[in-house]
Write the structure tokens for this entry.
Amino acid sequence: MHLLIVEDEEKLAKALKKGLETKGYAVDWLADGEKARNRILLYRNEYDLIILDLMLPGGMDGAAITENVRKEGVTTPIVILTARNETEHKIDLLNKGADDYIVKPFSFEELLARMNSVLRRPTVAQPMVLKVGPLEMDTATRVVRQGGNEVPLTLKEFALLECFMREPNKVLSREHLFDHVWDFNSLSWSNVLDVHMKNLRKKLEYETETNERSTERLFETVRGVGYRLAGEVQE
Ligand code: CA
């Protein structure tokens, strides 16, 4: 999951970025409203979620950015950070196209819970536990099980697998995977993605001892394009 934080309070922004990175998110941070608007419009397909402060320098506040990018057809979920608590003001934010808001000061856990709820919305009722073939991913506790056994994954491996679990049986391009798992400042993408895919496969694709040895193949490599996670989706 690739997030953009737009927040001019440096201390808060840095704490959020650090906290979210320890949860495995790739996080970019911008402080200026207009720069943020331009980044969102130019890189609209890279971000999975935008956390947007309401009061920003640079002539464009969070509400104006939301209204503007929605008019331009950006559908990325937006959670607004606001210091104001009036009901009318909140309704206005939602009407402008924000998906949710959180009133400052807030706890990190509340932000995570709201992010999770917003991220489950696009596909209507995406469950907390995603199930594809023998794999089970609990997006709240961040535990992955295969055939009932817990598989320990690194943060990046988890983030990578989450892309596949959210879009099973679909070929995901290398660019898509890189954009959603690594942040804006990561450059040499080709090699780093290969290494993580290789490690993820090593952990998940094992040889099963039956009468004959058979290999469980979860990921299909589509040459020159990307990868596909194949498996029956359970509700
Ligand atoms: Ca602010």
About this structure: The mean pLDDT is 88. The first strand starts at residue 2 and ends at 6. The chain has two domains: 2-119, 129-229.
